[in-house]
Amino acid sequence: MCHVRRTDATAARGRKATIKDVAARAGVSPSAVSIALHDKPGVSALTKERILRAASELGWRPNQAAASLSGRNVHTVGLAIARPARMLGLEPFYMEFISGIESVLGRRSCSLLLRLIEADEEIQVHREWWQGGRVNGSILVDLLVDDPRIPALAEIGLPAVVVGHPSLAGPFASVWTDDAAAVVEAVRYLAALGHRRVARVSGPAALGHSVIRTDAFTAVTRELGLEARTAVADFSADQGSRACRNLLLAPDRPTAIIFDNDIMAVAALGVAGEFGLSVPEDLSLLAWDDSQLCQLTRPTLSAMQHDVFSFGAEVTHALFGVINGEEHVSHPAQSPSLIPRASTAPPRR
Amino acid sequence: MCHVRRTDATAARGRKATIKDVAARAGVSPSAVSIALHDKPGVSALTKERILRAASELGWRPNQAAASLSGRNVHTVGLAIARPARMLGLEPFYMEFISGIESVLGRRSCSLLLRLIEADEEIQVHREWWQGGRVNGSILVDLLVDDPRIPALAEIGLPAVVVGHPSLAGPFASVWTDDAAAVVEAVRYLAALGHRRVARVSGPAALGHSVIRTDAFTAVTRELGLEARTAVADFSADQGSRACRNLLLAPDRPTAIIFDNDIMAVAALGVAGEFGLSVPEDLSLLAWDDSQLCQLTRPTLSAMQHDVFSFGAEVTHALFGVINGEEHVSHPAQSPSLIPRASTAPPRR
DNA sequence: CGGTGTCCATAGAACGGTCTAGTGTTACTT
DNA sequence: AAGTAACACTAGACCGTTCTATGGACACCG
């Protein structure tokens, strides 16, 4: 389809212009064109102008594949995400994260190679990308405890940055948020409001950061002498609701619940309604990964806020560090901070 | 910096294995390796096995850049999205759409080249991608009325599929949902419930589908003799709320409002609360682009449902059609259909 | 035994750039 | 005037594949 006209010269040949066409039109050698294009010393200002004019007249852009082949830089980084499609759509996290990545890539005229996959395909995909020379490096997300990707991808020498605590990252550089500190802040806040029975709905237990948060939650509630309980879910509204129901059905139901993302917290608002509990009087709810979603609900949701956009940008920055062989790329990103809204309050006496 | 071990041979040479290394190890010529890899006739079963073993021992994958350079297929399609980062995060639409795209790409071991950009960069990005040989084709979204991308990208011969009505697509193939029919269905439904004053909060007026929906809305409300009003917003919660407030402040406020996406509809629930109006008794709300979001709120939101995942898949399918030079690729996708939930009901007398 | 296929395998030319090593010209030094 | 340095530009190798043309080996046929 799309019957279209082409610019003069390309149309005539029926193919895209190449560096040779440009060289011919400007009356120089291909080398000169390459030099002119990259602003390197070696051609006079006059010639350069002539070359660039010829290039734009022919609508020529250097073929990236050819450039990569000699130049060694493919101007691309890879990201593979393994979560069910439906869930991905709803989670604001990834899109914001990707936006952050792009904000750094754009400045370097690099692009993101994206793949949404099943978890067991990921090693394969990165192998293909790296060994096939499609990417300069990759970003690894959703790290598991003892993640099989770490040894496998280290083995093939993939330059990568891990999004997660260094303890999960093996030999890779990593950028992480201090989840433990954030959990402590959240629990202390609820304790200060007067809550004595506090629960938490976590993400999948296999995820590295779930474990880190769970450990921190256990430690800090013990330290403060709180009654604590954790239910495991998978970030989805469904499982979040179910976990929440189970917690509320227990004989001594908690007066405050912390959720590992905002979707589950939003879903919990509905569950509270089912139980005839009013938020925050009967039940305080505290979300994680604060997105605009938390401000859309009534009551608005208190949340542990996290600048996901900047986080993505920092991770990408770190990846370029790794690619360029810099040392000491790993570093913590800004810690999530508590944004109190209308869903948390002292418990009813 | 990921100090890592490499597989034997690559470590020794300090670089990735190439087809020559594989050929040498298997004791054949590079051509034979290429033939074996692609399952083409020309090598004996025995040799082939030897070659594949050598390849896997060296961890070799064909370099995509080199393959593209001769083979002409870059196994990549492009997608550039121009919306502010924050908004993208919240809109479930794009992630689901991308998931759908991926579901088709994955089967063909193609990848998606993604860029989040400012609107005025888009032509430039596609030029770069296409003329630089980075993509085999692109998907164009968020079509405007008289979109400048259409002539510009047709001119350079980019194979592309437009997401939107053919009237917006110029010479390009397109895949679209019948928005006009959906608007009619929505309005008829509200009219059948007994609503006589119906309003609509649209997306940006420059968007092609906003215009199509607005025209349909105007036509059908006139036909049914309803009092109709349209307010323009930009899909964001903020502007959605504001538009909703303006509608509700009018002397004869509407008893039902249709929104062009679900974010704005969710935001409107809050606004209704501000005004002391209960949904759906005092005010019916109908969302568009039904995502799980609509089921998370209380009351749940009635919505025009739209299988965005399949839509993405169909568009991608069509793009492959265009790339392969097939005719008659354009076609409508499934029309959105009404999912009545708790936010719509007959108006209070 | 020469002719004709068939099968296996290879040589070598693309593909479209980048980059190094070089050539030729001019200007400046001594 | 010879030497040299700076500059403008080019030839050609090279990156890692694919693909076409071709060659050799072997079997079958008349």
Question: What do these coordinates show?
Answer:
Two copies of one chain form a homodimer. Chain A is of the alpha/beta class. Chain A has helices spanning 8-13, 19-26, 30-37, 45-58, 64-71, 85-90, 92-107, 122-131, 149-155, 166-169, 179-193, 208-223, 237-249, 262-274, 293-296, 308-323, and strands spanning 76-81, 111-116, 137-140, 160-163, 173-176, 197-202, 227-232, 256-259, 284-288, 302-305, 331-332, 337-339. Chain A folds into two domains: 9-62, 434 Repressor (Amino-terminal Domain) (Orthogonal Bundle); 77-349, Rossmann fold (3-Layer(aba) Sandwich), CATH 3.40.50. Chain A has 16 helices and twelve strands. In chain A, the strands form two sheets. The first copy, chain A, has a six-stranded parallel beta sheet with strand order 2-1-3-4-5-11, with helices on both faces. In chain A, helix 2 (19-26) crosses helix 4. The termini of chain A are far apart. Residues 1-13 of chain A have low confidence and may be disordered. The interface between A and B is large, with 85 and 86 residues. The structure holds a DNA duplex (30 and 30 nucleotides). Chains A, B: Keywords: DNA-binding, Transcription, Transcription regulation. Chains A, B: Residues 329-349 are annotated as: Disordered. Chains A, B: Pfam families: LacI, Peripla_BP_3.
